[in-house]
């Protein structure tokens, strides 16, 4: 059980910023899917092997949902794992995912965050207090600037009365 820090809750990104993150990441995923479709069509045209065409473009709702979920999960996992809790949307809006105890999310937390997005209606869970993929993984998305200001203010308060060494 992780210690739940108040400073994390006080500096959570707003719902508007979270929506902006979502829209930016969805646009990035659309671009990725567009290029994957082009590659599969190109491979089909070069090889005449229908596997390449139907693997990515078979018009089955279930298959497209599974492929979309797989690609989105990989996108979120790779971004958040290798950029310290940030996706493209979070980089643009200056936010990041952190554990509720203020540490960087573990690889397991990032993996679960990524997989939780496959749950239908996950995006609608943000009409509540926290989204499901935040609550289930004990993570939060914070505004980096506000969080750093709060940390600095706390450190300055803690430093009152401490003798400086020249």
List keywords for this structure.
two-stranded antiparallel sheet, mainly alpha, 166 residues, 2 strands
Characterization of this structure:
With 166 residues, the chain is mainly alpha-helical. The chain is 61% helix and 6% strand. It has eight helices and two strands. It has helices at 6-10, 15-47, 50-56, 61-82, 88-93, 107-116, 132-135, 144-158, and strands at 95-99, 139-143. It has a two-stranded antiparallel ribbon. The protein starts with 5 loop residues before the first helix and ends in an 8-residue tail after the last helix. The model has no long low-confidence stretch (mean pLDDT 88).
What is the helix content?
Answer: 55-70%
- What is the strand arrangement across the widest sheet? 1-2
Share in β-strands: 5-15%
The quaternary state of the protein chains shown equals: single chain
The count of helical stretches stands at: 8
Cα-atom Rg, whole angstroms? 20 Å
In N-to-C order, the SSE pattern is HHHHHEHHEH
**Whole-number mean pLDDT:** 88
Largest sheet: 2 strands, antiparallel
Number of strands: 2
Q: Which segments are poorly predicted (pLDDT under 50) over 5 or more consecutive residues?
A: none
The span between the termini is 42 Å
Structural class: mainly alpha
Overall outline: elongated
Sum this structure up briefly:
The chain has 166 residues and is mainly alpha-helical. The chain has eight helices and two strands; from the N terminus they run αααααβααβα.
